[in-house]
């Protein structure tokens, strides 16, 4: 017995909602996976903020047809598809999938979509080499701290040099007076 129209509409609405919260979608050919292996994939992906959705390609096509950001996904919708919809850490999600893939050797990423752009398998793998959001924030914080430190040291140098200059005035004045008096004496 097939799904009713209301069931299909509910699935499409759910897909749209999850897609709206996601930053990356990976389309995986999962043919040959058992139910326990799909459960294992879901369990591995969950800590990375990734939702693992198994849906008919037709329903996913309907879910993305009006959304420019996800439309490039349609080129990967064929055969048996499972969708990894990444909400949080792209890098960790890709690593978690690759660990799963090493164990099962049954799945393969067909492609992905990030910010309205279709990604090939090589481009998806390149994403895991990028620094994470936390690493980028740490790098920026270090650089901002370095600028603030240099500025503070520079500002500290002004009073120090001014004090040395003021300190030098009396001794310079004494030398000048002594030189004038010696000139007058000669």
Automatic annotation (TrEMBL):
Any GO BP: translation
InterPro entries hit by this protein: Ribosomal_uL10, Ribosomal_uL10-like_sf, Ribosomal_uL10_bac, Ribosomal_uL10_bac_type, Ribosomal_uL10_CS_bac
Residues that span the membrane, as ranges: none
Keyword Hydrolase: no
GO CC field: large ribosomal subunit
Superkingdom of source: Bacteria
SUPFAM superfamilies hit by this protein: Ribosomal protein L10-like (SSF160369)
Keywords: Ribonucleoprotein, Ribosomal protein, RNA-binding, rRNA-binding
A Pfam family matched in the record: Ribosomal_L10
GO molecular function, one term: large ribosomal subunit rRNA binding
Subunit comment: Part of the ribosomal stalk of the 50S ribosomal subunit. The N-terminus interacts with L11 and the large rRNA to form the base of the stalk. The C-terminus forms an elongated spine to which L12 dimers bind in a sequential fashion forming a multimeric L10(L12)X complex.
Xref: PANTHER family: 39S RIBOSOMAL PROTEIN L10, MITOCHONDRIAL
Family: Belongs to the universal ribosomal protein uL10 family.
Function comment: Forms part of the ribosomal stalk, playing a central role in the interaction of the ribosome with GTP-bound translation factors.
Name of protein: Large ribosomal subunit protein uL10
